[in-house]
Amino acid sequence: MKPRLPMSGLMFSSSYYRDMKRLYSLPLAMRLLASGLSAVYVLGALIVSPPARAELSNPFLWELSKNGKALALFGSLHVGKNDFYPVPEFVIKRFEAAKVLAVETDMTLPASQQVCGKLAATTERIDSVLSQEDFAALTGYLRASNLPPNAVEGRKLWFVNLIVVGTELQQLGVDFSRGLDVIFVREAKQAKKRVVEVVGAGKQCESLAAAPNAEAAAAMTRFLETVRSNKMEKRLFEMIDAYRVGDGATLSRVIGEEFGDTALGQAARRRVFEDRHAAMAEVIESYLKQPDSHFVVISIGHLVGDNNLLDALAKRGITVKRADAPTK
């Protein structure tokens, strides 16, 4: 599977502006030394030291079975990098053998994007929801990232959070257009497979939109602090490296760090993940009762940690077995 060509002109991350300001205040020799010891920045793109392992050496793939029926469940990331590809052959074979692709939400559909946009519309001003300090920091972030103010005006804070997180990830060299779930959807449609949704855009965005202002404001505070302390890049590539080698424990820890350990952070994590698992498991179980074989793609965040989707599936009497790569 090959991803769509990357979007033209990846912007620098917000950490780039801070690093460049610091570097250019030093003598030339010190600047060159510092540059050699940190991530390497070149014109127009951020090049991060390559990981020790490329592609997916141990994909998150499970076989689900009940009453003699089986299907493949693949744990994906919503964002991607070109070196995720090609996807290992034993995963591709499962995908090609299936008649139906099931994804959480098909965000390639214009209707999916429109329903989220409608839920995000508001007349409430962001500066009435955020603290004065956070609003000033957000304004500075938008300016540093070349985002115009109207990119977030008229949007609820939960949606603004998605915008800035997506912007930061893209600046760090990953984006949603190269996410594995999106690539599987494109491949399935090209192969004339049927594509169904486990959750759908309406329920997906309703879950995000259910965040009260206090919870959304706390999420923005965490994001701004993460950027300010230069932790976003470290967490992102720690997550990607863990994903490549199938390290669920590390992924769970990093995801937990993103939500934090406050009451608001934990409430957000339960709402985004745990509270949705019973309904998702019910839908996936229904696929095991259908004649056509399914290949199911779900965000890896639902498949690691405590009270995950795999646990919810097991409670419904479904046998869950990790599918290892075939030995050579």
What structural keywords apply?
328 residues; alpha/beta; 6-stranded mixed sheet; two-stranded antiparallel sheet; 8 strands; 48% helix; globular; disordered N terminus
Describe this structure in words.
There is one protein chain. Strand 3 and strand 4 (69-76) form a beta hairpin. Residues 2-54 have low confidence and may be disordered. With 328 residues, the chain is an alpha/beta fold. The chain has helices spanning 14-23, 28-37, 89-97, 110-120, 132-144, 157-171, 180-190, 201-209, 213-228, 232-244, 248-259, 263-272, 277-287, 309-315; strands spanning 40-42, 45-47, 61-66, 69-76, 100-103, 194-197, 294-299, 319-322. Helix 10 runs antiparallel to helix 11. It has 14 helices and eight strands. It is globular and about 60 Å long. The protein starts with 13 loop residues before the first helix and ends in a 6-residue tail after the last strand. Strands 6-5-7-4-3-8 form a six-stranded mixed beta sheet, sandwiched between helices. It has one domain.
Q: What is the helical fraction, as a range of percent?
A: 40-55%
Instruction: Name the poorly predicted regions.
Output: 2-54
| Major sheet summary line | 6 strands, mixed
Broad shape: globular
> Biggest sheet: strands side by side, in what order?
6-5-7-4-3-8
How many separate structural domains? 1
Q: How many strands appear in the DSSP assignment?
A: 8
Radius of gyration over all CA atoms, rounded: 21 Å
Q: Which structural class do the helices and strands define?
A: alpha/beta
Q: Which whole number gives the mean pLDDT?
A: 80
Euclidean distance between termini CA atoms: 22 Å
Beta-strand residue fraction: 5-15%
What is the helix tally? 14
Instruction: Tell me the series of helices and strands, N- to C-terminal.
Output: HHEEEEHEHHHHEHHHHHHEHE
